[in-house]
Amino acid sequence: MMVGYESQLLDLAVNQPDAFKQIKDDVVIVYPTPTVWSTHTLMALDEKGGTLLNLLKTPAVQKLAW
Q1: Which domain of life is it from (predicted)?
Q2: Which residue, 7, 8, 10, 12, is CA-closest to 22?
């Protein structure tokens, strides 16, 4: 059993196609209920980072995120 993100499986398929071919028929993707939420932290280290942080907190971007 392996637990990971969908993006890791896609990365394997793109960057190691021979390895992916060996496991692709055995892969089962499960979406548990409730799902697992993760929080990603952004820390602004300079003015441009602060601008990005402020943008990500705007209602328009928050609406896209959810």
Answers
A1: Bacteria
A2: 12
